[in-house]
């Protein structure tokens, strides 16, 4: 966002430097366009106002003079109408804004001068009052219509002010002086009001420009997102095809490698001439098993990420499954002198879950604990109830721990902590992501707690909705009050027995 703000400010500054009004170039055109629309829409009201004033002025001047003044005014209004409509009809890209701004200023001067000629009517006190009143109305209309072009508004007021002040040459009485002063003051007030309208219009244009920019950025971001999603879908499809192909292509030779290496390791067809051959066969077999396990982990993680991992759910005793997994890793733990501490609640009811996935979760957690716990360390296993009625499995070790800034790394695919790399055997970095994915599929929660030199604890919780509550005992009828509902069944049985005997 900061980068976009800086880019927007630089673009705005460049636009202002190349503009003639100190605003962005797009605002220059918009202000002139708004002026042209206002003037074009006010042609008929201005013509009617001019005809009304010309007709009324016939009360003080000969009708011919009034008619000539009206014709002159209609010509100025027609000139302004022709100019504004011609401007609106042009392509915005081909418009020279500065030229049209000067042209509209000339039109304003011509039209205001035509309105100012109404002072020819002001030969009597009543006529002077009428003329000053008309000049105030025209000044208000001109400043509001030309508010988006301040220079044009000023140009429109100059002839009107000159006309109002010229009436002082015809009469020096106090009433005329007061009326002229009020007229000039009103025109100045309208000029200030026009500045406020101009500022409001500029603010509205800026707001609209910001909205347009935001909409443009949103559309661009949506287009980028759609393109990224399309590429991600293509990459995911290619990955799935690759894994499906490579799993078959790798497992087929791996089965042969594992089989023949196991035959040679166990010396099924006789002892090796060189004892080192048996060690080589054992190394080949162990490497093949490691590669096969890695392939299986990659495939499991890919299925989980793609949402294609199907759960075969059944009723499972969580404590019993954890104890079995502990026995499976017990040999490795004893070889390193590690000690298990088990706190398993044997009264837990069964859990509705996928047994293979559950065992994989526990085995991965226990394998990591054994792998990263130093010789002579301790591993604590807890299985019990959660506060919400679910069940949990906790595995805590006394290993090197994980720094807080590396917790996100170890939870990513192929991610490993720096301390674990230095102090333990290398792993694939897929164990914890697979565990979290399987826990999420069960609707559970995965929590990793670790601090350097304080060990690591992983807590996996299963929701209460997966806990199978024991059904209540059936209320069977006693022998003293036999249930009449079973008599028809007994009759049917006796009838079938009699039929078989016959």
From TrEMBL:
Reaction equations catalysed: ATP + protein L-histidine = ADP + protein N-phospho-L-histidine
One Pfam family cited in the UniProt record for this chain: HisKA
UniProt-recorded Gene Ontology molecular function terms: phosphorelay sensor kinase activity
Biased composition (Basic and acidic residues): 481-494
Domain Histidine kinase: 245-466
Coiled-coil zones: 211-238
EC identifiers of the protein: 2.7.13.3
InterPro entries xref list: HATPase_C_sf, HATPase_dom, His_kinase_dom, HisK_dim/P_dom, HisK_dim/P_sf, Sensor_HK_Regulatory, Sig_transdc_His_kin-like_C
The UniProt record lists the keyword Phosphoprotein: yes
Enzyme superclass (EC): transferase
Keyword Phosphoprotein attributed: yes
Stretches for region Disordered: 476-502
Domain of life: Bacteria
Identification of the protein by name: histidine kinase
């Amino acid at each position: 966002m900061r980068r976009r703000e800086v880019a927007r400010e630089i673009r705005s500054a460049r636009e202002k430097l190349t503009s003639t009004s100190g605003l962005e170039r797009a605002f220059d055109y918009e202000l002139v366009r708004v002026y042209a629309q206002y003037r074009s829409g006010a042609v008929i009201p201005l013509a009617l106002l001019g005809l009304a004033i010309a007709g009324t002025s016939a009360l003080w001047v000969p009708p011919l003079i009034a008619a000539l003044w009206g014709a002159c005014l209609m010509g100025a209004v027609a000139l302004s109408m022709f100019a504004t409509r011609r401007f609106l009809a042009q392509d915005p890209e081909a418009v020279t804004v500065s030229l049209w701004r000067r042209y509209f200023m000339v039109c304003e001067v011509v039209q205001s001068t035509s309105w100012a000629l109404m002072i020819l009517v002001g030969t009597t006190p009543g006529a002077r009052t009428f003329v000053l009143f008309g000049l105030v109305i025209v000044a208000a209309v001109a400043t509001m219509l030309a508010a988006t072009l301040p220079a044009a508004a000023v140009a429109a007021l100059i002839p009107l002010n000159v006309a109002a002040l010229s009436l002082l040459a015809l009469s020096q009485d106090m009433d005329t002086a007061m009326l002229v002063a009020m007229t000039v003051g009103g025109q100045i007030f309208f000029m200030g009001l026009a500045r406020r309208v101009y500022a409001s219009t500029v603010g509205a244009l800026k707001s609209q420009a910001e909205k347009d920019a935001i909409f443009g950025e949103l559309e661009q971001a949506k287009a980028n997102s759609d393109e990224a999603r399309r590429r991600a879908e293509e990459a995911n499809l290619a990955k799935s095809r690759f894994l499906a192909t490579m799993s078959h292509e790798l497992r087929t030779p791996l089965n042969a490698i594992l089989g023949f290496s196991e035959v040679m390791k166990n010396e099924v067809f006789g002892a090796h001439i060189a004892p080192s051959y048996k060690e080589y066969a054992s190394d080949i077999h162990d490497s093949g098993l490691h590669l096969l396990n890695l392939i299986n982990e990659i495939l499991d993680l890919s299925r989980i990420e793609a949402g294609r991992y199907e759960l075969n759910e059944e009723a499972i005793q969580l404590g019993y499954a954890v104890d079995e997994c502990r026995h499976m890793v017990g040999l490795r733990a004893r070889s390193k002198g590690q000690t298990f501490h088990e706190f398993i609640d044997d009264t837990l009811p069964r859990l509705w879950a996928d047994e293979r996935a559950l065992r994989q979760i526990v085995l991965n957690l226990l394998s990591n604990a054994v792998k990263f716990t130093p010789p002579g360390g301790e591993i604590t296993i807890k299985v019990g109830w959660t506060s919400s009625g679910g069940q949990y499995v906790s595995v805590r070790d006394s290993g090197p721990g994980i720094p807080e800034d590396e917790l996100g790394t170890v939870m990513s695919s192929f991610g490993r902590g720096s301390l674990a790399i230095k102090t333990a055997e290398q792993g694939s970095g897929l164990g914890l992501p697979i565990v979290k994915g399987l826990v999420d599929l069960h609707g559970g929660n995965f929590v990793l707690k670790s601090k350097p030199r304080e060990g690591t604890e992983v807590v996996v919780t299963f929701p209460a909705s997966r806990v199978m509550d024991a059904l209540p005992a059936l209320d069977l009828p006693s022998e003293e009050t036999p249930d009449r509902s079973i008599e028809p069944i007994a009759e049917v049985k006796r009838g079938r027995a009699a039929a078989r005997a016959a």
